[in-house]
Amino acid sequence: MTEPGQMFSDGKTYERMMGRWSKLAGRIFLVWLDPPKNLNWIEVGCGNGAFTEELIARCAPRAVSAVDPSPGQLDFARTRPAAKLAQFSLGDAQALPFPDRSFDAAAMALVITFIPDPAKAVAEMARAVRPGGEVATYMWDTLNGGVPLAPIEAALKAMGKPPSTRASAAASGTPCKAFGRRQGCNRSRHAKSASRLPTRASTISANRTSCRSGRPGS
Length: 218
Hints:
Blueprint lengths: L10 H23 L6 E5 L5 H10 L3 E6 L2 H7 L8 E5 L12 E7 L8 H11 E12 L9 H9 L40 E7 L5 E4 L4
Parallel strand pairs: 1-2, 1-4, 2-3, 4-5
Antiparallel strand pairs: 5-6, 6-7
Helix pairs in contact: 1-2
């Protein structure tokens, strides 16, 4: 039996349990985001590199700096052949080890609900991205059963054994305007997901003049 904490500290364990779902969700998200090629990216909370591979394969970035607080996850990420372009390093999402305006774009994949202060992490991403760049994050739509393990959770509930609440559950319902200036959040898109991996995503421009949120795959 895998201990709950092991999945987030051991890249191989995470790959076995969640890697395939992370990559599928990442592909849908990148299609929705539709960023230009040849950008200098920072990926915050890169984990074992599942999303990093998708970012490199689908967005043809000029460079990728990927940070995560887990040495075990980073060790696995560095073994991925398709992620050789990326520079993996230890880092805290709430205190990124980069100067202001270092990147063209920032992404955070399936991480934001596990961060103690989500708004602080997004503010750090915006700080590290040049004015006019894009800061984007997405997470399983936990409020509406949009997680790969939802069928198992439903079965547990039917047996009278509901699963425990996920970390920072409220963050999955935070609208993107909470991360930027409210008067600047003037674009949004909400629709029922057409995919089998429903997620919620938000983006803001690094100068916080606009933002959008929605469900990739819709």
